């Protein structure tokens, strides 16, 4: 198990160095994205002015404060509480995010499915697990809201965060077909029958 | 006692942000129990981050989780209280809107068809307001629950057959916990409704999921099943965040209602580890928060 520090953006070779069980800390830039953003981008053909090539996206919709634009708040927003939402809902968007926008890393909670794993293998990507619900802590890793696009979808806008040592995050799905979630699923499946028997609820 | 609606509005606003910031003491104690019993390295690390987050939220006066949830207000009105029901509902709604605006809370509420967000945490029939009555003299309790969506999406109802028995209901609960994995932000409180009609059964599951830890189902048969299921879910290996380990749930809670001779309904509603709620109790002597 290796601890990686990644200065974003990264290339495909770098992402292939990540293996399930490794930990990662990100630096510089991170993009926030979620359901409505993805629906508008890929079901309704909306384009973003941001260049996501080689970048990481986090499944989030933040709590922010509107403030006067300044050097410290160039987008007119201050971060208040930024955390992570459940990734599974956005499964079908992984491939287009990678193919059209060049995204390399997805940060989320709860893991993603086989289509995502296949896209990671073919295109060079990885999923980094963050602890969901730990938003107060996560917010301390965010320095600034640098910019925002598609803000008519607020709070489900596309956010560009300036980050400082964002992590450690667990590599839970890698570019080599490895999925921590698939391993756990197999383990849980192997325990099911005994648990049901202990409840007098066998099939 | 006459219920002052300005006070209800103020409390409804205050309770929303209190619930978002302060993790109830029973949940904090629940974390300690899980940490003490957990042996998996990844699981212990994940639990450690959750406990650290509670401390960071207190230190930085921040809300615990970014998900401000669907606002739910449970109002329980005792005897000898003079109030206007329509005014009460309006005051709660104003308080919810005000809290969202004044505290820069993310409005997580949209129209179900247009998906339009009014940025007020309110919408058609939201906040959800339940009013009930009890025997306490001159007492009004307002409980606020910001129900997070990751866990709310882990909701299920099955109208089982009487011939399938309680065994099928237990199997249903176990299989849903397996299916949900890390999506519902474990460790969770698994709320189970048994009996009633379809709508009452789902409501029972919500009552169960949002009940304080260490409280017990008032029905002895229900209490026996929740103890059995509480043990069983932590033998599945789902673990915190679905990353593996013992700590899948703080507890399974069961609530029951009588049902029809043809029916055997079971419902599941999940509460995430950020099991937030706050209550204000109004009496002639003043207001107490818990």
UniProtKB/TrEMBL annotation, chain A:
Residues 6-183 form the Fe-S hydro-lyase tartrate dehydratase beta-type catalytic domain. Its EC number is 4.2.1.32. The keyword Zinc-finger does not apply. It comes from the Bacteria. InterPro entries: Fe-S_hydro-lyase_TtdB-typ_cat (IPR004647), Fe-S_hydroAse_TtdB_cat_sf (IPR036660). Coiled coil: none annotated. Pfam families: Fumerase_C. The keyword Lipid biosynthesis does not apply. Keywords: Lyase. GO terms for molecular function: L(+)-tartrate dehydratase activity. It catalyses: (2R,3R)-tartrate = oxaloacetate + H2O. Heterotetramer of two alpha and two beta subunits. Belongs to the class-I fumarase family. PANTHER family: L(+)-TARTRATE DEHYDRATASE SUBUNIT BETA. This is L(+)-tartrate dehydratase subunit beta. It comes from Hansschlegelia zhihuaiae.
TrEMBL record, chain B:
Its EC number is 4.2.1.2. GO terms for molecular function: 4 iron, 4 sulfur cluster binding; fumarate hydratase activity; metal ion binding. It is an enzyme of class 4 (lyase). Coiled coil: none annotated. Pfam families: Fumerase (PF05681). Residues 12-280 form the Fe-S hydro-lyase tartrate dehydratase alpha-type catalytic domain. It comes from the Bacteria. The keyword Magnesium does not apply. Keywords: 4Fe-4S, Iron, Iron-sulfur, Lyase, Metal-binding. PANTHER family: FUMARATE HYDRATASE-RELATED, L(+)-TARTRATE DEHYDRATASE SUBUNIT ALPHA-RELATED. Belongs to the class-I fumarase family. This is Fumarate hydratase. It comes from Hansschlegelia zhihuaiae.
